[in-house]
Each structure stands twice: as C-alpha cells, then as structure tokens.
Amino acid sequence: MNRNSRITLMAGTLAIAICMGFAGTAWAQASKDSAGVVQAFDKLKTLAGRWEATSEKGKATTTFQLVSGGTAPLERTDMPGEKEMISVYHLDGNRLILTHYCEVGNQPRMQATSFDPKTNEIDFNFLDATNMPSQDAGHMHHVIIKFNAAGELAESWTFHQGGKPGFTVPLLYHRVN
C-alpha cells in the first residue's frame, strides 16, 4: 500500500469515527428527549375524568378519556356559547403531538417543545394544520398545560390571527371526578 492510499484510508476511517461520534451524541440527545416526551405523555394520561373551570363566559368543562387502548388521551371541551371542541394527544416516535379540532373549522397540530418535570408544565407549539387556507387564518397556535396541586390543572390556549397572537384563554380547572 503506497503512502497516498494509507492517507486516504486513514482519512476515511477518521471521517467514519467522527460521524459515529455525532450519531452517538444525537442518539443520546434523542433518548433523553424521548424520556421527557414519555414522562409528559404519562402525565396527560393521569387527567382521565371530568374537570370544571370558571371562564369569562361562565362554567367551562373538559373531560379527558383514554381511547384507543390507552394510546391517546382525548379531551372534550365545552365553553358557554361555543361548540364542543376536541383535542387528541398522542406519541409520534419521540414527539408528543396535540391535534385540536377547533370550532372555527380547522385542525391545528402542535408539538410539545418542552416538558419541565419540576414545574409540571408542557409547552405545545404550532406545527401545521389541516383545513386552514393560510397561516394568517385564525387558529389555536400555542398551548401550555400545567399540572398544579392534586386535582388542579391550568391550561392556556393562544389563538393566532393574521400571523400574530390574537387572544389567550387561561383556564384553571378543578377535578370533579
């Protein structure tokens, strides 16, 4: 083997080792994130039952039900003066996804971008949507779910219109059953 061949072989070996190092780092990060995603999803599954909150419009209720063999918490929300809305939470690989079936007729999907086990807060941000003609159309864009003391749940839903936040609906639910 001549000198140029040995240098080429060494360079190729070094490149493979570097790539494997990056892959190992990426895998470790993905595994760490996956653990947080599963932990957040498991917290959502504990919400099964009926919850009530006082809103600007009156008493709001939400019901969480585990469906599809426990693989998806389904949330049904009733707000006075509005049509029932449904949100479904599910795992998609190492992502936690929320699909919100909104009374405005679109279905925004949001991805959990963080879960802090110390504050028990899950932060969902807009990913994409179906039945939405453009990003400027009104849609739910951001949701924060915070598990407070036992039997207390805070949700904050932010609606976007024209590409910017329009309003936020904060709700403090208490478990009814």
Summarize the helices and strands and which ones pair or pack.
Layout: H1 3-45, E1 49-55, E2 58-67, E3 72-78, E4 85-92, E5 95-101, E6 107-116, E7 121-130, E8 139-147, E9 152-161, E10 164-175
Antiparallel strand pairs: 1-2, 1-10, 2-3, 3-4, 4-5, 5-6, 6-7, 7-8, 8-9, 9-10
Report the biggest beta sheet as strand number plus sense, adding barrel if it closes.
10 strands, antiparallel, barrel
Low-confidence runs (pLDDT<50, min 5 residues)? Answer: 4-31
- The helix tally amounts to 1
Principal-axes geometry comes out as globular
Total count of strands? 10
Rg, rounded, reads: 22 Å
Share of residues in strands:
over 45%
Summary tags:
alpha+beta
Describe the structure.
The chain is of the alpha+beta class and 177 residues long. Helix content is 24%, strand content 51%. It is built from 1 helix and 10 strands. The chain has one helix spanning 3-45, and strands spanning 49-55, 58-67, 72-78, 85-92, 95-101, 107-116, 121-130, 139-147, 152-161, 164-175. It has a 10-stranded antiparallel barrel. The chain starts with a helix and ends with a strand. Mean pLDDT is 86; it is low at 4-31.
